[in-house]
Amino acid sequence: MNPNDILAKAETLRNNLSSGFRDEIVKSLYAEAETIAQRAVKTANEKRYDFDQKIDRLVTSPLTGLPIMLLLLAIIIWLTVSGANVASDAIATVLFGFGEWARALFVGWNVPWWITGFIWDGVYLGLAWVVSVMLPPMMIFFPAFTFLEDLGYLPRVAFNMDWMFKKAGAHGKQSLTMAMGFGCNAAGVVATRVIDSPRERLIAILTNNFVPCNGRFPTLIMLATVFVAAGFSPALTSIIASGTVVGIVLIGVAFTFLMSWILSRTVLKGEASAFTLELPPYRRPNVSRILYTSIIDRTIFVLWRAMQTAAPAGAIIWILANVPFGTSNLAAAIAGWLNPFGILLGLDGIILLAYIIAIPANEIVVPTMMMMYMGAGMMVDGPSSSAAIFDLLVNGNGWTMLTAVNLMLFALLHNPCATTIMTIYKETKSYKWATLSVVITLGTAFLVTFLTASVARLLGWA
Amino acid sequence: MNMTFWLIVLAVILLITFLPRVGLRSQYKSYRAAQEREQVEDALKHLLDREQAGRHASPESLAGILGLSRPRVTGLIEDMETQGLVESRGDQLHLTADGERWALHVVRAHRLWERYLADEARMPLGQIHSEAHRREHNLTDAQLDELDAALGFPTRDPHGDPIPTREGTLPKAEGTPVTAWQADRPARIVHLEDEPALAYEQILAAGIRLGQDIRILERTPQRVVLSDGENEYRLAPAVASNVTVAPIPEHELLKRESVPLTELAHDHRAEIVTLDDAVQGFTRRRFLDLGLTPGTIIYPELQNFFGDPRGYRVRGTLIALRKDQAAQIWVKPV
Amino acid sequence: MTNTKISLPTEHCESCPAYAQLEQMGIKTGDFDRVVALAGNPNTGKSTLFNALTGLKQHTGNWPGKTVTRAEGGYQFNSVKYKLVDLPGTYSLLSASQDEEVARDFILFGQPDCTIVVTDATALERNLNLVMQVMEITTHVVVAVNLMDEARRKGLEVDTRSLSRDLGIPAIPITARTGEGMSTLLTTVSEVIEGLVATKPLRVHGTPEFQKAVNELAPMIEQIAPGIPNARWLAIRLLDGDTRVQKALSSGELADIVGRQQRADVHFSKKMSVEGRQ
Fold first, then answer.
1. Helix/strand/coil for B199
2. What value of ipTM does the predicted structure carry?
3. Nearest chain C CA: its distance from A361 CA (Å)
4. N or C: at which end does chain C have fewer Cβ atoms within 10 angstroms?
5. Low-confidence spans in chain A with pLDDT less than 50
6. Peptide bond before B196: cis, by omega within 30 degrees of 0?
């Protein structure tokens, strides 16, 4: 007797069985389960699923389902924006103040200028920027989001939105993976495992980056606050700023649908697969668990990762800015070389250079950019308030509303960070898809910013 | 200096061209080999097709099917003869035992791929034939076994054709062409011939599906009119002869008294009668595992803005199903 | 979001009887005596139980399919160290989707000493489907009927004794959130492992045709891997066409795990007698 005999025997037996073999197994399993459960469970009164049902009817109802969804998104973003503003200013003041003080100390000790510069104007400044820009939004966003996640609301979003995904040739569970993408795109890519059909899973992976992750939120929040909301009265600032961020998120969602639609009609051709989605009962979220998870597991983890890239990035920027090149320095030279291309996209050379340096982690785009603008010799005193940043960018570096809008669009659409690209490679085991994820997003980002810049210029807005 | 440069360029070109395995030359050779093998496989399939239809292939028919000139076909046939796959008897080509085994292997690959494309990749039925045709070549038995198992050992392809077993037995396609069916007897469509493609397109365009239950309303030399109780389908007799029908299985008549789940009104309870035969593969397994077995009580509980999907309460859990899926679940209101 | 599991010094509640002899070990599972697997449908509170026993704070959101990999942690109960493996939540082990494969492979090839199937007291019927499938793979099964508080709230009365009798394995009512029933559960698990509680899992019969095929195939598998506890289940899987089981059979992996399991048993009883606990 050897294994192959058994396999052959199984094959013969299988061919003689009726084709509904699997159906029969499951049917008898469930029949047995039903009998046993009926014997074991007694229903005292007919009070079933009452409360859950009421909430469900509300959050999925044809009338209120979609508005509630938008409202929840807006509330979370508003909380994040308005809370982050206050905290960011405070943290920046403290951190930059400390930097100045320590720098002065080093100067007093007669430490060589390049050591002082490298440590305090390079590495430390990079870290200070990342912490003050990223920490506050994350501390607010993660707990709020985890609350919805634990409550069981996300599957309802998938339920509400599925029809749109179906029209785009994708799977409704893609909205679950997008929701995860708000936290971190790499996590969103891993979450696509919930989609069984390989085709639809690839669509979800390739488009996940159109959801701005926590590393990119701070960029959006800062720009929305400093530029878009700048002209409004202080009372309205946070509302206008969060409205802008919500708008950007919705543009990202629109691009997700558009790109899914294009993919499902070109490289990933096919029809929508079978869709089954369990809507689990609501559970009362455990507040201490939420705080623990969102602060330890999520915030600290993401911040730590950002700091690991921010420190070397700060060092690189400092070196670039201090290596002489022609009449100026290396950073200025590279930025100058990239500048025509940047202008074409409604951006500038420094922004593009910042994006290149920030490929390992998108979180450091704003810090890199700010450090280079400051290194260009305009001003250095702790640019902690919105007004100071506005002044630096507009008066010092010729930014316009177009620059801000296009930078927001670029931040939304451009290529995934290195971690996400690696994750895509690991999940798909293919260089082809990993490369395509970059091509698609970067292509879209270039195309869209080029179009908005051209249109704005044609119409004389910029 | 200049000399060295050109020497390096020459060396690189030579390397790119002649490097074993990755070089252009060997790439081209393996490409040619694969091409030739594909041609042989297509030819074998054609021969098998003909033999199953009770006829024999000829060099002409082969040239027509493969789109090759006569001299090329003659060369191909000679190659296949030396490999011991075919025998020429006069103008007729016969498969040898080896040839038939190989042909069945290719047919198996083709039909398994069609099953995969229809069930798992959810490609439109009209496209799966050509895609499967591209994928059916250069596969080993072990690869096919894996595909077969992953699909849950299907016995028929999406057109209703039987899939050969690993050992190379091919169950006879049951059923009668609708043109020869007893006119007053209801029937089920068990096979739609996908070749010639033009006729198949017409069948699909008329709205006829595999598994549909029909009656013959009219059969004249000009046209054949079928009805499924709601719609009427008109076909030219030549096209209709590509539609094969069989008697409706007894238990399937159950469906007669039931409605698709999509038609169940909000908050109305019903009992699942059966899952449609069109649900196969992973989807069917998922349905069963979620407890959508015959006899289960189900009722729509949640609607949404777009009207699709709906949330159904099944065995204490809320499960959302799209219309496409719900339409394949037959229920009896209680 | 992250896979980083952090072990914190946990102060267990001294006054609760549930934790009387329980010591949470977090992720320090390097040296353990027994392996216990946690299986169950999605949303039955599996992870809550896992966290309560190990003291870990593994996060799981409330959406289907959130855990696709397995998490590991440890606890010590009555001086025996257990490694606890949290498997992805699944409705079944038959569909062969990614999460189901992870769960199935661990129960079959990981050969846990005991498998706890966590069920939702408010939806027992659906949950028992999985319980019975696990029972086919391994006889060392304990059913934890979780969310008893919710069941009471909904006016349901669950008779775990009737359940236990019908299934042929222990069924323990618990509420993982509050710790209710934990100590009984852990005691039962250890008794099942020691063989102090005999389990006679129910077998689903199916059609006569099915029975006949299974009865022809199962003895052949037993011949190849003597002492294998789940020949019947393997036969069903082969008939159903499970590539993973086919591969395990032809590569000799199945025969291997039986041998490994028996060696582990000998090793453990030696260790216990040396330490004077048996």
1. helix
2. 0.82
3. 16
4. C
5. 376-381
6. yes
